[in-house]
């Protein structure tokens, strides 16, 4: 098994993140640092990442209702609370699938399955991610139409999005909008609204694929069933074939 795949299967990181660790010289096999991505791990080999031995774990999948004020990371050098700390009973080395901003709440999956993570976050699979945003400004079709065509953010055009205006409050100069996208770039939803003149002051992700937050209060989590994981996999495969 290739080293990046072995690391992903051990629940340390996704394959792409594993490749970064390898290039940075943070991975060793039998005491020897490896930097070649094509390196294979054989039965009986001792693999270490950042000096810590790793082993394959049973794959687990959790759904978290992330509250605001928590970062989507395994650890934080600034001492801020992380999403992993919200699942203290989980023994496996889980990490978030993608990320939500510190001040964004809502649905977040955590797992130790690197292949599943890559499948969920890759734009080609076009898995729906639904957000509800409260913005400053009055939304209407003319203002939001550019989002349906894709807009350029930092030199790259976004894929077409789907929106629904939930509420417009002229007295408070505020609107509530639901936005469905397939990507997950850094601060993407906020930047998309900013590009059309609307400033986000509250944001929550309410759906990921077919999953929603029914029954989960902020900070609560539950284990995904095998059926739910299989449905996400099927959804990704179906989108890829289109």
UniProtKB/TrEMBL annotation:
Any GO CC annotation of this UniProt entry: cytosol
GO molecular function, one term: rRNA pseudouridine synthase activity
InterPro entries: PsdUridine_s_RsuA/RluB/E/F_cat, PsdUridine_synth_cat_dom_sf, PsdUridine_synth_RsuA/RluA, PsdUridine_synth_RsuA/RluB/E/F, PsdUridine_synth_RsuA/RluB_CS, RsuA_PseudoU_synthase, S4_RNA-bd, S4_RNA-bd_sf
The UniProt record lists the keyword Isomerase: yes
EC number of the protein: 5.4.99.-
NCBIfam families to which the protein is assigned, alphabetical: pseudouridine synthase (TIGR00093)
Protein name: Pseudouridine synthase
Source organism of the structure: Streptococcus sanguinis
């Amino acid at each position: 098994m290739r080293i990046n795949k072995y690391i992903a299967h051990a629940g340390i990181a996704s394959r792409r993140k594993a490749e970064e660790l390898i290039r940075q010289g943070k991975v060793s096999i039998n005491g020897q640092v490896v930097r070649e991505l094509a390196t294979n791990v054989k039965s009986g080999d001792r693999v270490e990442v950042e000096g810590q031995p790793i082993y394959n774990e049973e794959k687990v999948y959790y759904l978290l209702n992330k509250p605001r004020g928590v970062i989507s990371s395994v650890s934080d050098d600034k001492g801020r609370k992380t999403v992993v700390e919200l699942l203290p009973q989980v023994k496996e080395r889980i990490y978030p699938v993608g990320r939500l901003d510190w001040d964004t709440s809502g649905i977040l999956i955590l797992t130790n399955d690197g292949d599943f993570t890559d499948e969920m976050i890759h734009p080609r699979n076009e898995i729906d991610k639904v957000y509800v945003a409260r913005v400053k400004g009055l939304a209407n079709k003319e203002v939001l139409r550019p989002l349906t065509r894709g807009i350029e953010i930092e030199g790259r055009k976004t894929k077409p999005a789907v929106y629904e205006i939930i509420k417009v409050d002229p007295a408070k100069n505020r609107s509530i909008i639901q936005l469905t996208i397939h990507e997950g770039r850094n601060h993407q939803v906020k930047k998309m609204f900013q590009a059309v003149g609307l400033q986000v002051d509250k944001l929550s992700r309410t759906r990921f694929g077919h999953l929603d937050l029914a029954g989960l209060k902020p900070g609560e989590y539950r284990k995904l069933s095998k059926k739910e994981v299989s449905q996400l996999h099927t959804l990704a495969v179906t989108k890829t074939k289109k």
